[in-house]
Amino acid sequence: MARLADYFVLVGYDPGKRGSGDGQGQILQRFPEKDWEDNPFPQGIELFCQPSGWQLFTERNPPTFFVAVLTDINSERHYCACFTFWEAVESAQPQSHPRNGDGGEEEEEPSSPVQPAQLFAPKSLVLVSRLDHAEVFRNSLGLIYTIYVDGLSVSLENVIGNLLTCTIPITGGAQRTISLGAGDRQVIQTPINDSLPVSSCSVALLFRQLGITNVLYLFCAALTEHKILFLSSSYQRLTDACRALLALMFPLKYSFTYVPILPAQLLEVLSTPTPFIIGVHSIFQSETQELLDVVIADLDGGTVNVPECVHISLLPEPLLQQTREALSMVLDPELEVADLAFPPSTISASSLKMQDKEIRAVFLRLFAQLLQGYRWCLHIIRIHPEPVIRFHKAAFLGQRGLTEDDFLTKVLEGMAFAGFVTERGAPYRSIDLFDELVAYEVKRMRAEEGNKQKILRHIKELAEKLYKNENPYPAVTMHKVQKPTEGCHLRLHQKPFPRLDEGTVQWIIDQATAKLQTAPPAVKAEKKCMVPSGPPIAAILERNGNALANSARRLEVVRNCISYVFENKMLEAKKLFPAVLRAMKGRAARHCLTQELNLHVQQNRAVLDHQQFDFIIRMMNCCLQDCTAMDEHGIAAALLPLVTAFCRKLSPGITQFAYSCVQEHVVWTNIQFWEAMFYCDVQNHIRALYLDSNEENHTDEESTEGPQEAKSALEIASEQLRLWPTMSREKQQELIQKEESTVFSQAIHYANRMSYLLLPLDTSKNRLLRSSGLGDVESVSNSFVTNSIAGSVAESYDTESGFEDAESSDVANYVVRFINRFVDKVCTESGVTNEHLKGLHVMIPDIVQMHIETLDAVHRESKRLPPIQKPKLLRPNLLVGEECVMEGLRVYLMPDGREEAAGGNIGGPPLLPAEGAIFLTTYRIIFKGTPTDPLVGEQVVIRSFPIASLTKEKKINIQAQVDQFIQEGLQLRSCTFQLLKIAFDEEVASDSAEIFRKHLHKLRYPQHVRGTFAFTVGQSPKQAMQPKAKEKNPSLRTLSKNLVKNAKKTIGRQYVTRKKYTPPAWEQRSSQHFPEDNEDEISVSEEMDRSTLTPTTTIKPSDKMTINHLVERACCRDYQRLGLGTLSSSLTRSKNEPFRISTVNRMYAICRSYPGLLIVPQSIQDNTIQRISRCYRQNRFPVVCWRNSRTKAVLLRSGGLHGKGVVGLFKSQNAPTAGPSPTDSTSLEQEKYLQAVINSMPHYADAGGRNTLSGFTSAHMSSSDFSDKRQPKLGSLMKQVMGGKDDGPGTVSRGGKWGSIRGSGRMSSYALNMEIGSRLAGKDLLGAQHNGSPAEASFLRQHRASLYIIGDKSQLKGVKPDPLQHWEVVPIEVFDVRQVKASFKKLMKACVPGCPSTDPSVAYLRSLEESEWLSQIHKILQISVLVVELLDTGSSVLVSLEDGWDITTQVVSLVQLLSDPYYRTLEGFRLLVEKEWLSFGHRFSHRGAQTLAGQSSGFAPIFLQFLDCVHQIHLQFPMEFEFSQYYLKFLSYHYISNRFRTFLLDSDYERIELGLLYEEKGERKSPQVCKSIWDYIDRLNKKAPVFFNYMYAPEDGEVLRPYSNISNLKVWDYYMEETLSEGPSYDWELAQGQPEHVEEADRQDTGAPQTKRKIIWPCYDNRGRVEPDAISKLLEELHNLEMELGQVPERWKDTWDKVKASQRSEARQEGSRTPSSLLMSSGLSHHRRSLGVYLQESGVGSTLNLSLDSDTSSTSTPSSGKAGGRRSTSTLYSQFQMSESENRSYEGSLYKKGAFMKPWKPRWFVLDKTKHQLRYYDSRMDTECKGVIDLAEVESITPGTPTMGAPKTVDEKAFFDLKTTKRVYNFCAQDVQLAQQWIDRIQSCLSDA
């Protein structure tokens, strides 16, 4: 029983304090006057009666009522019911007499009519109670007011006394009628269960005011401990709203500040830092505006305002959605049927009271779903004397799959939930609706999910129960309480509230208390029982809670792998291992691992050998690395007992346990994890404690009950708690003591465990509890600590000396502190006695110290272990003369952005990551190793590239293996389109990696060209790892210095200096030890002509000498071939030649970057040349490099003009000259020079004939057949080249006007682009308007310019050419070297990306486009084709771009390649490159950044771009080139590899300076390495047809005009392909050696069935070698046969030529071309573009993939869709094999019945015994088989009968049927004998088989 009201208080306005603005209240009277013992009087009531302040009003307000809530210091809530009414106050004169003289004041008032308006002061009647019965309070206070106001004849003192002495039952659903003695009657109902909150209608009202979403926001905010403020202008509503919010939170209780009505004086409470729920009157709204972190709900406006800085975590989906739907069903049932055509009339919401309960039911269900299964995560750690319970939060979140969920995590961490655990955790107590719901209804809720009807039914059921709880008695007797008469508060002469007599009231109270004490105490029997736990979480796990994420197959793999490890089948285990590591991502697999290992521990298999130990450790590490610090899935918890079980013996008496190798995980440093583990273990032990004692007593009973489920700890606890009161005192003490010592022993155990996992194996390294937690360099990954490469530990393990201590003390202290913190917390929580706790604190440092000592021994021993067997490092094959600079560093080769090798989406085996080593040699960086994936572990992976091609090196951090930590690595990118992404193994110290980088850098950028591999090859380098060796031979260093000095001097001197370093005479040479000859550095070249340069003679630097050498240079050979002038020995020139060879540059004095001999016009003197050269950049004046043998037009090249030169050349003569006169003279000489070039052209003189356009065109048309319509005409070509990118051939672009060059309004030879176009295309166009310019006459001559100068737009600004001249300037825009560099970088990234992109298909093409590489190639090809057209039409062209050594060279060489078939042969191409690229000074060293000096400028692949252009042309004209694509790739690779000297240095001058140029003849005697790439190619070409294109069948004199549109260009496969089996195939010797071994190996095991099947992996195998093309294969077989027969095998080329010759003669005899000769004869039509003809080349030879059609000889077409497409290939082979008759055992003609409804047809049948098949052909002559019947499938042969449509004339007996497993064939022979013969033959074949 409890008092209905504790205090009655009368509060009034205090007039004495009026001065301060706001008034104050004072307590006038209170009853009882002394406090109750159990309930002191609450402070501050006067504030709460008038929350908005005490003020006087000018009129009487009606009485008000509200309930305020005060919370006292014990957090008990007091409900203050305030009933307020207004009384008149006396006038403002100061009153001295006391307050009870009220009557007097009233009488004075009417007598003074001038009084100001009367004022009224509030007065409050307050009831203070601990019970919340608002209605009863309202009625009672109302009654007191009525008695007072209506003057009823009832004593107020009596009523108040009765009110204060009235007692009611607190709970249990009793009904009690009370009367206050004024003829009134009230019925009070108490709730059945007081744990459920009482809400009447408040919850429903809250939803009405704010709406569903807003209330949900508030609900979540309250649960996640945000501050919530309600605003309303009604106090009652504020109270209701706060009460409603608390009711919604049930079963959690709100434990922070809760003030439903906050008085104005206390507003500063709102800025408290703690969470709260507070209500404030809305007049204070402005004061609440500046609160930044408070969620404000305005009840009157229906809004909830969440400030920006507050983030409210909402309920997890799908609960949020489900709750919203349920609420809307309750609050707005019409919503469901709003759209129905005939809505049911009955639907309407329940009454407000019922709705209130329904809403609460929704939230009750919500909590049941949120907290379902919570009891399974409770740990009971003490049962007696009081149960102590902890909640395992991590496990709960983990099992629910909600670890990421913000809301639930915050709720579980909150105070409310802590209270919930304390209150509801107890296993033995009375239970309420929530407990039942969680225990019994969760399954039902899962089942009903989504079914609205059922959910609604459930909600209604719950609502009924809640309603019943509040209103247990439905028929309530009527209340009878007097109310005051209407409007009584407005009466004028209202007496003030009388002063009550304290004595009377006190007397009534005393009476009642005395009576209560004599009455017997009302004991309410508490219905305690065991709290049901409900189903475990696993049984109710959400469908989305990845329970099935791991298939059983994966778990099977994990189990197998573990059993293999324990059975010591290490190879098997190794194969499964990667799969196991991958599976460990899934939770189920990790659980499975812990269970399996646990089984093995139980079977006493915990002592392992080293390899097993390593496997188990790696699995554990992998398992742990995905665990968070919370360990929500209990993986770390399950592993904890295992890591102290598994061990290995290191030496007698020293054992290493697994824990020393799995310390690297954050979970061990998380104190919450240890607490949860500790409590879990304590619970198990306490459970065991009581189980044992039970079993001793009840053994007999148990047997009868049969197998019962093991009791959970909570069940045992509840049983114990039930028995507790019945036990004797001693028994109780004994149990308490037992429990306490159990906890204590566990604490000791855990102190040990924690020291195991927190003390590192090497205690000298303080790496404990690092903030990063994982993988810094210091703690080398522990998965391998098994052979720990631990750092230098002080080797004195002498513990007494104290070193030991000093060293590890900081670690030890840290661990001790950590364990102490833990022990303090758990022991105080679980009630361990103080003595025990002190004992623990003493023990912990000893435990740690002991453990450190054992660890030191283990550490010492583990260092002595042999390292784990890692795969043996494979040595790479090296070239002759290539030496290792740095021994292999063990690394992992990681996959980069290329998908092929990693076995990604593309499929194929995962070759990467691979483990092996990286080697640095003088020539290359080589990775060689094997894939880590054991399924492909037998393969060898090699990736390498020349050091010289390294373009970028950066440090990266990567995770090398699934179960390992981040390691440092390098990413090395090479311009041979290769990328090495390596991670150093942890055994590689970081300084070795640094040394590696330094050496790499040194080798990549030598001081001087001499340092490159091509020069140093053969000298034994210094082994890098010997630390003290000097960097370089001093001799070499001084030598290179001298060289640099000498380079500046003249060449003459050079010859003298070279004398010093000449090699010994040949005779001595050969006698020296030659193979590893340390060749002298300067005579570094290949061919020394002994006649001219015998080392013993001294060389006089005479002109004669130089000339002789120069003549031998490539250019000269070519000039002579072109007839551009001969150089007779007497240096006399033949005068009739238009050009002569000038020796003006023989000393390289005029232009250093030009060759020594140059072709200039005959008429120009040498001294003129010297002057002209000054006008051009780098002195590169125009020289002739090629002449068209037909039109005699010449191609010239030069550098761009210097500024002044341009002006001089094109300035109109009458303009004043800008500079001094010398400029003029040179410009005149320049003109003279150009004129001389023009004069040299034979048709120039005859102005009438060829030169007029018509004559010209006809000549042109006849001379070169313009039949190829697809080629754009010249004019449009010009337009394309000149007018920016976007102009199509037909548009006139403003920027592309040629006219723009010549200003000044003077009309020049061509007016507009359009006209140029049409003229060049051969149309006459005279319609252009002329403005009377003097040049008109010449203009009318309509000639095409004899010389076109292709120059750079930017250089030709303001140029005014003279119309009388015969040259035209074509300004074009070209890209500069910077753009090439940038473009190449992007191209490399596109083709060899560093890391996988998100969408590979798009990303590759997009980045390819962004690189603009193809558009640059397009531009070069476009310009070249234009120049080819111009030359072919008889105009000469001077290409004068940039410095004349980059783009100029590209264009000039391409023009020659397209125009002259000679350059498309192997020999010609070499000559072209030597002449245009080497002699004319393309700066290979500079552009390739080959030395330290070039490092900053970076790599610019000008030559590569040229080769790419050649490749594009090769693709379009595959029959025009003698060399294959492989040849181009070979050059692309080696021009940057520095293996040969050919492409080193920047010009002939530099090569001579180094003595490279003229020694190329002699040295063949040395078996040394080839130093010229050309010699190497020659030698290779003699041996094997690698560089040869079998489809080579040139047309005579064909000029090629390739398409240059980007759509016609292909990305070169050189950029994309790689061969991991052997590395790049361009170092021929290296690639050659391997396949032979494979075959030998195959031959040995003859027992095994031999398979011819080869699997070729892309990106791994060298396809050309594994599966060479037909011709190469035949040549190879021929070679092998000759070897076997003992003949000297003839060269492949001779064989090939013979075959070709015989082909031609055959063709001639037959007179018509047969298909078989198609391939060889060159009779294809004139413009053979490749359509179907592709010869796919590869490393070795070429795969023949010819599809030339036999019927169409004019063009080749792709034959994919034609049936005839196959015929040609068969005929191709038939020339080799027609001799034997194709295994025809028997043949003849038979009729065969077609398929259903088809007629009989005669067919030619062939029975083939060897192939065991019956083939048929259309006719005897047919070569293509129409069908095959496999005899293996034949079941029987039976005589047949003729069917419809059979041949009429034939005898019936000639029919026979052949039955196969698939169908029946009907045959018919000519006659009976033939039929019999066929049957016999087929039978015999069958029986043979």
Structure description:
This protein has 1889 residues and is an alpha+beta fold. It is built from 60 helices and 44 strands. The chain has a seven-stranded antiparallel β-sheet. A seven-stranded antiparallel β-sheet has the order 41-40-39-38-44-43-42, covered by helices on one side. About 20% of the residues have low confidence.
Descriptive terms for the model:
1889 residues; 60 helices; alpha+beta; elongated; 7-stranded antiparallel sheet; 44 strands
Secondary structure layout plus pairing:
Elements: E1 2-3, E2 7-14, E3 24-31, H1 45-49, E4 64-71, E5 77-88, H2 102-108, E6 120-129, H3 134-150, H4 156-165, E7 167-168, E8 175-178, E9 186-189, H5 202-210, H6 212-223, E10 227-232, H7 235-249, E11 257-259, E12 276-281, H8 285-288, E13 294-298, E14 303-305, H9 319-331, H10 334-337, H11 352-370, E15 378-382, E16 388-391, H12 393-400, H13 406-413, H14 415-424, E17 428-429, H15 433-448, H16 452-470, H17 502-518, E18 529-530, H18 537-540, H19 552-566, H20 570-583, H21 587-602, E19 607-608, H22 610-625, H23 635-643, E20 647-651, E21 654-657, H24 671-697, H25 699-705, H26 713-723, H27 729-758, H28 803-829, H29 834-864, E22 884-893, E23 914-921, E24 924-931, E25 941-946, E26 950-959, E27 966-974, E28 978-984, H30 990-1004, H31 1013-1016, H32 1034-1047, H33 1051-1060, H34 1066-1071, H35 1103-1112, H36 1114-1122, E29 1139-1142, E30 1158-1161, H37 1166-1172, E31 1183-1187, E32 1194-1198, H38 1203-1210, H39 1221-1239, H40 1253-1263, H41 1274-1282, H42 1313-1320, H43 1336-1340, E33 1347-1352, E34 1367-1372, H44 1377-1391, H45 1400-1411, H46 1413-1432, ...
Parallel strand pairs: 10-12, 10-13, 11-12, 19-20, 32-35, 33-34, 33-35
Antiparallel strand pairs: 1-7, 2-3, 2-6, 4-5, 5-6, 8-9, 13-14, 15-16, 17-18, 20-21, 22-23, 22-28, 23-24, 24-25, 26-27, 27-28, 29-30, 31-32, 36-37, 38-39, 38-44, 39-40, 40-41, 42-43, 43-44
Helix pairs in contact: 3-4, 4-17, 5-6, 5-7, 5-11, 9-11, 11-15, 11-16, 19-20, 19-21, 21-23, 24-27, 27-28, 27-29, 28-29, 38-39, 41-42, 41-46, 44-45, 46-47, 46-50, 47-48, 47-50, 50-51
